[in-house]
Amino acid sequence: MEDYDFVVEHDGLPSSGALECFCNAEIAADYNKAITTAYGHPKNALICSEYLSIKTEVFLWINSLKYFITGVNFVLRTICIALVAWIGYPTETQKLEMTTKVTFFVQYFNTAFLLLLVNADLSEQPFSFGLVGGIESDFDKTWYKLIGNTIVSTMIFSAVFPLMEACGFFSLRLLGRIVDKGFSTDPYVTKKTSI
Question: Do the beta carbons of residue 111 and residue 73 sit within 8 Å?
Fold first, then answer.
């Protein structure tokens, strides 16, 4: 119960882990009893029920963040490609080179650098640049647990996303062809005008 009280009073700080071990064991033994019992808490707080809801909320926020970052990167990539095409370059090689550079820098800034700056606490540094609202003042195990994990998860998802995107667009094209053929198996049937 001391660990539960510490977690409630010090929101966001890591605890000893006793609450996690206790609630995981109780939930594994009897789920319904675990979420409806106060276990003698003075304020009759449903300790494991609250633990489970906080754990679920944190899990959803952390996982949704990596998908959100990847979605924003997709939009930024599309904008960068359109801007480089609008600028125009004399050769296709120069255009491709500039598209790759601009897209890389914009996505790197969005994924890693902004996430680092948002969580930074530079109050102990000679120049803080106004970045004193974060919770991390150094690259320690807490930083890697909170921010590093999000960056790695985003990079893993970003590595798989192009394949998912290609499969998704191929599926849309295939579905369009099937609808155009009227779900026929004959390869020469089409609703479009052909020569």
Answer: yes
The greatest distance separating any two alpha carbons of the chain, rounded to the nearest whole angstrom, comes to 83
Which residue stretches of the chain have pLDDT < 50? none
CA–CA distance, 153 with 53 (Å, rounded to integer) = 22
**Residue 26 corresponds to which tokens in the numbers above?**
């109780």
Q: Where are the domains of the chain?
A: 1-45, 57-195
What confidence tens digit (pLDDT) does each residue in 65-84 have? 777 877 888 888 899 889 99
Main-chain phi, psi angles of 120, to 5 degrees: -80, 145
CA 119/CA 71 separation, integer angstroms: 21
Global pTM value: 0.55
Query: Residue 170 has what pLDDT?
Result: 95
CA distance 80 to 64: 24
